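Structure ticket #2291
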Amino acid sequence: MRSQGRYDFRLIARCAAVFCLCVLAAVAHAGDAAPPEEGDAAAAAPAPDEKEKAAPPSKDKDWLRGRLTLGVDSAWSDRGADLRFDQWLEFQVDPPTCPKLHLRGSLWLLEDAIEESDRSSAVRDINDATREDVHFRPLYLYVQADDLIGHSTLRLGRQRILEGAAYNRIDGVYFKQRFAAWDYYVFGGGRATIFGDAFESWIGGGGLSVRPLRGTKLAADFYYGEDDRRSLPQWAGGRFAGDDNLLALSLWQTITPNVTFFGRYAWYDGKSDDIRLNLTGYVPCLDVAFDAAFRSRLGFLGDRVSDLTGYYRVLGGLPKNDTYFLALHKPIGKKVVFSVEGEILNVRSDVGLAQSPRDYARLGAILAADDLCRGFGGSVNVEWWDVDGGESLWTVGGEVTKRWKCVQVALGSDYQRYEDRVIVYSGPDALNPYRYSLTYDMLPYYGQAVLGGNTLAVELHEDIRSVYLRGKWRICKDQDLSARLTYEEDDSPESPYWRAIMEYALRF
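Resolution: structure written out below.
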């Protein structure tokens, strides 16, 4: 009863805060508003997530703009087939009589027409996580009002929070006010996802940023979230485990006109959690663009509120680790670009193979050319992974493209070689029930006392080859038709696979 009363009180308090914020914004006098600064439209636009892309700035005559996409996606093999239709509508409404009022929306609808594959089939679509045949997913849908209180932005509805300590999607309210050298924002509402709605999982936060010097920006962001996945509250460290908070301090610094720096330090529930450093720029004397990054996880990332877990539920807990990344881009003449990038992950906590990730090194390169001769172009790419524990992957691919006035066609191919070393149990099958019961929630090779040493190291090799043909036809200024056909074969019994994708796009 106490926990229920505490939950109800927090729910009432958050709803009251959101209501007061909306009332305060609505009664403000819009006539005293300052003109919006450049970049305000970009700040109000949704994040480029999944299919979310911002439209061009509004014009007086273009009060309704958007894009409608109709697509079909099919995959099949000798052991199964999958056919799916999808429609995506993105729109922006700017009423001519209300220049400070805007409506933004992006709606995604998917229908399963044919699904003749089992759960382990390679042709099964990744979105088939439920038994529903029709999926409706509003990516964002909100009303925006500009300059209700000074130079400000107010958004109500489903939206992405582009700023702050967590990158999330909410059904709620967002308010930001800007001044000459500083600004602040607040948000609150129910957490929302495109795979399901969790309206009882309330989140909120805010932030403050200042610009003390030209080219310098400092920001402090706070996030608080609840998660209703736990039916019974769990006491952990003097607090309920059903809510989390994250505090982040960030710095943006322009070092030279061609080099910028970004740094962020984050605390999770009052403990050091994560540090990120990023340096991007351009070296004129070498004609090279670069991107260097460093990230250090200072604490173990386990089960948290969904907005803060990363890939926890897919890969498992993330131990303390350091990641180093470097990318270089070098033009060769006017039509060729050579890019190379490398990444190293070093796990600082010895947690064994049962935890992810493992140490790895990755190196990749691509050589791309556009319109070399009579509309012909192409690219060649290679990539190599070396993962601790005997796992490795290397791939090579390329494509040739041809452009005409309204048509573009590309023919490409990829080859991947995957190797892994795994430990399997070689004992009698009759002992499996006892082995599973005594090593519950553990990987088999962690129960050596039960396995009795009956393990065997196995080297796995997988060769994956694919060929694809894709094209795009620009029917007219506002209409496109694109298609892609892929053939793939590997060493599995279900091989080969076919996949065909077609999409029609209409811009209005």
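Closing remark: The chain has a mean pLDDT of 79.
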